[in-house]
Write a structure and sequence with these properties.
mainly alpha; two-stranded antiparallel ribbon; 19 helices; 2 strands; Putative tricarboxylic transport membrane protein; transmembrane helix; transmembrane; DUF112_TM
Amino acid sequence: MSLLQGFGEVLTPTNLLYVLIGAVLGTAVGVLPGLGSAMAVALLLPLTFTLEPLSALIMFAGVYFGGLFGDSIAGILMNTPGNSTAIAGAFEGHRMALTGRAPQALATSAIGAFTGGILATTLVVFFAPTLASLANRFGPGEYFALAVFAFVATSAVVADSALRGLAALGLGLAISVVGIDSVSGAQRFTFGVLELFDGVSIVVLTVALLALGEVFHVASRVGHPEDRSLIASQGRPFLSGAEFREALPAWLRGTAFGVPFGVIPAGGAEVPTFLAYGTERRLDRRRKNPMFGKGAIRGVAGPEAAGNATAGTAMGALLALGLPTSATAAVLLAAFQQYGIQPGPLLFERSGELVWALLASLFIGMVVLLILNLPFAPLWARLLRVPKPYLYAGIAVLACFGVYASTGSLVDQVLLLGLGIVGYLMRRYDFPVAPVLIAVILGPLAEESLREAMNNSENNPLTLVSSPITVVLYLMLIGAVLLSVVNKVRARGRQDI
């Protein structure tokens, strides 16, 4: 019943227009290599403050999934995935394009993303309220354990280098403590600058690290022309019956891989997409006529479904727990907070109408994206022909104007430039950006939870592991770290051989 009311909220001409705008913008940005849904949301964030909260969040939902749809187009047609989540699907997708099956590869990608997203969102509708009610049992110790789990999993476990990941996490935590201490009222690292009393704006941080950092990175590589050419996509933008039956099991298996990874901060969508790809490849070896390496349709179907299924359940984790499990989810959490909305266990009680309308918009957005991508994917690919100097200059101007329009502060412009340079250096030396964003978002929660837990227990540290939930979270974290270490040792062993 609540979901039907949500559809009633969304199915108005104005809100449908915002869904369409979000889907178009998300896909357009996702097509461009190096960008993605996180940057699209970051760029839109300062420009949507004049909108009603529901309209803005509906548009962000379209951007959220639209970026994932667009990521795969560049990977299939140019072998240059728009984001890391599209790498696995690009392996066989680009081979299909090279053999003249680019339309079928794009259709497989679009339908796979639709399948994974719809099934995952359906699960979110049924289980997010239950998850939120269970989360009501969380106290300060549980929230601190959850934050620590997110910190370590996204920095030490997921990053290629644990040292770089932890360094990025430390940078984010340092930024998160700038401003007035909410407990003591003391100034922390403000250097007497009045504009820093409220801390570093999450809008400034996300736009600087994601957008301006990428602009500087691309500008620094102007002398490195890419020789990849765009493969023309001509023919039927749909699958035959035989192709559909071939891809269907892979779509379902990919969805099964992606669903659980959206709930835990264990690497975003990259892990399940590669798991789905590896599974399809192993199954393909048992066939009489193996297709992997020649353009296997299942090699596209599985990873694409896994990526969007992860995004779908990540939205559930964000709404029910207030836990961002990826950089895009962290930026979305910032968008919620800008409108005075705090995702978490009480969200369904305090802002139920808004949440159900947002969930309804996800279903509508997926349908809109399927309609946009099946026949028009070749048109999106033409964005790849836009000269980089014009494209990234426009992004830089939009970033600066957007931040100034939202804050009206010259200090924020200086911070934008400085943090943009930091973002460039992080890309230059392979430091992950996601740990910084998640640390800034969850840092205050971790600090307040730790202080409250210590105050309530007369500074007894055992209170942090005094409940079954905290014990399970820490055991899961230790298991994830050990598994990561074992996998990295094995990978080094193979390289030595």
